[in-house]
């Protein structure tokens, strides 16, 4: 039988693949709680699974596998924190902290909504489908019963109107 890198897969590889397929989502949730974002969580889980695969034959009890992967994630994340740790020096002066005011997002959303409402119906529909519902031009064309070219030209005209909208110009100048 050929190893993991060969053309045939070993029973060890098959067993590990089944384990990852079954337990992957739960392990990813734990990784997310350690890292705080999805991309870093995927990287952390992948690193822990590589370490686990290399030790797969030594994990005799199948019930201990989750614990092994979790421990590998925690150890890997602690090492990452240590690598990225900033040195903190005590001081008598406390630096000024910038406090973010989240109300600007609400104000901006309101301005954008009003500007979008001023667009003609077809342009407004196209903008909403493209930028709010994140549909592709082909999906928009199918939904609206028009050609892709019509969607592209409608979007182009709508975006140009939004660029010239007085309220949005003021928001860009203030931002």
Walk me through this protein's architecture.
With 175 residues, this protein is mainly α. The protein has two domains: 11-84, RNA polymerase sigma factor, region 2, helix turn helix motif (Rna Polymerase Sigma Factor, Chain: A), CATH 1.10.1740.10; 115-174, Winged helix-like DNA-binding domain superfamily/Winged helix DNA-binding domain (Arc Repressor Mutant, subunit A, Orthogonal Bundle). It has helices at 11-35, 38-54, 65-84, 103-117, 121-132, 137-144, 148-164, 166-174. Helix 1 (11-35) packs antiparallel against helix 2, helix 5 packs across helix 7 and helix 6 packs across helix 7.
Q: What's the total helix number?
A: 8
Helix content: over 70%
Secondary structure: number of strands: 0
**Share in β-strands:** under 5%
Report the biggest beta sheet as strand number plus sense, adding barrel if it closes. none
| Structural domain tally | 2
CATH level-four homologous superfamily name of the largest domain: RNA polymerase sigma factor, region 2, helix turn helix motif
Shape: flat
pLDDT average, as an integer?
84
User: Which structural class is indicated by helix and strand composition?
Assistant: mainly alpha
The CATH class name of the largest domain reads Mainly Alpha
From the alpha-carbon coordinates, what is the Rg to the nearest angstrom? Answer: 26 Å
CATH topology of the largest domain: Rna Polymerase Sigma Factor, Chain: A
């Amino acid at each position: 039988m050929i190893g993991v890198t060969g053309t045939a897969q070993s029973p060890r590889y098959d067993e590990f693949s089944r384990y990852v397929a079954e337990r992957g989502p739960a392990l990813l949730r734990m990784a997310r709680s350690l890292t705080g974002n999805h991309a870093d969580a995927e990287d952390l889980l992948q690193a822990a699974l590589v370490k686990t695969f290399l030790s797969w034959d030594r994990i005799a009890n199948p019930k201990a596998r989750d614990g092994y992967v979790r421990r590998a994630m925690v150890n890997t994340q602690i090492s990452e924190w240590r690598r990225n740790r900033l040195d903190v020096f005590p001081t008598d002066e406390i630096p000024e902290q910038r406090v973010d005011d989240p109300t600007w997002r609400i104000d901006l959303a309101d301005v954008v909504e009003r500007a979008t409402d001023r667009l003609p119906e077809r342009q407004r529909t196209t903008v909403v489908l493209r930028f709010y519902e994140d549909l592709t031009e082909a999906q928009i064309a199918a939904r609206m019963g028009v050609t892709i070219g019509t969607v592209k030209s409608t979007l182009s005209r709508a975006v140009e109107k939004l660029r010239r909208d007085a309220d949005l110009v003021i928001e860009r100048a203030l931002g």
